[in-house]
Amino acid sequence: RSKDQGGGVFHAYEPQLHVEAEERRVLEMALRKALENQELYLDYQPVVDARSGTLRGFEALLRWRHPAFGLISPVKFIPIAEEARLIAEIGAWVVRTACAEAASWPGGVHVAVNVSPEQLHNPQFVTVVAEALSDSGLSPQRLELEVTESVFLREGTGAVRVLGDILALGVGLSLDDFGTGYSSLGYLSSTRFSSIKIDRSFVQTAATGRAEAIAIIRAVVAMADSLNMTTTAEGVETEAELRMVQELGCRSIQGYYFGRPLPVEEARALTQRHQQTRAA
Ligand code: C2E
Ligand code: MG
Ligand code: MG
Ligand code: MG
Q1: Cβ atoms of 31 and 86 closer than 8 Å
Q2: Which segments constitute the EAL domain (predicted)?
Q3: pLDDT of 172-181, one tens digit each?
């Protein structure tokens, strides 16, 4: 894969595996300096009420703009950060920045922050969250952490304890990309999640009329209801998808149909417009 075909930093004449390893090495070195060089920032994607369209909050999504390589997707650099043991430091920056930026938004809108499994196997993370809240003045009820099922894959109860300590701060937890990972539902009784985010793949398939995908979403919504959790449909792009997840009872939705991830100033402006509409 050459650079022109997308993503690669190196040239096509080298064997594929070597190219990928080399690219990773270069990105890892660059990532080590990304924080101090202020190359990282957050975009915010709106999450809205599925029925009324009312703004409920935003999901903070990490962005890395390298001066030479340009914008690099988190799908690419988060796994590198995890393997290079940089995720604790980067993740702490994300939590502090999201809390500080959201603290000044009017109307008590929520902010959701993605957390890697690695961060939850480190008890220090609870201190990071507590300090981000007290330094920013953000009410814990306005912060939500998103984790995926993979956090429960590793042996031991370390992560479950850290999640419990985070809940004790008053922070909400949501289960991201639900249905795509390894799903032993046992953890739903050990950790009190406030919401389930139904992965975009189910939303897409359901909207094509596939009975199985529809039945799965319906079952997830019913399970969430009886466990006192809400549901968010991820990646809603079309009106057909919106209608389908509304019909199936998803509480909130997120997706390009309502809005792409926005720079922080635009997210703030959206919050202010929303406040005025409600006051009017
Ligand atoms: P995620 O947490 O599931 O975030 C949702 C992803 O779906 C985002 O991609 C978002 O831009 C994208 N998306 C939202 N609506 C639509 C839609 O209608 N259609 C399509 N096709 N995509 C949509 P993004 O920003 O590239 O992030 C990808 C993943 O990277 C995230 O998936 C999350 O797992 C990870 N990530 C992002 N920021 C962070 C972070 O601060 N920390 C950690 N640990 N992971 C992060
Ligand atoms: Mg997420
Ligand atoms: Mg997700
Ligand atoms: Mg996803």
Answers
A1: yes
A2: 24-275
A3: 999 999 988 7
The pLDDT tens digits of the residues spanning 9-29 come to: 555 556 677 888 999 999 999
Residue of 40, 42, 44, 61 to test ligand 1 pocket, by largest number of atoms within 8 Å of CB: 61
Rounded distance between C-alpha atoms, residue 51 and residue 203, angstroms:
16
C-alpha to C-alpha distance for 130 and 128, rounded to whole angstroms: 6
Residue 20 pLDDT: 86
Q: Which two tokens stand for residue 220?
A: 């997830």
CA-nearest of 38, 84, 53 to 242 is 53
Q: Extract the tokens encoding 86.
A: 């940089």
Positive or negative: CA dihedral 241, 244, 247, 250: negative
- Residue closest via CA to ligand 1's atom 46 equals 114
In the chain, % of residues over pLDDT 90: 80
In whole angstroms, what is the distance from residue 36 CA to residue 89 CA?
11
Listed in order, strand segments (DSSP E) in 26-160 are 40-49, 55-66, 70-72, 110-114, 143-148
By most ligand atoms within 8 Å of CB, the mutation choice from 114, 144, 177, 196 for ligand 1 is 114
Give pTM, 2 decimals: 0.93
ipTM for the predicted complex comes to 0.98
The pLDDT, as a whole number, for residue 1 is: 40
Q: Is the CB of 177 under 6 A from ligand 1?
A: yes
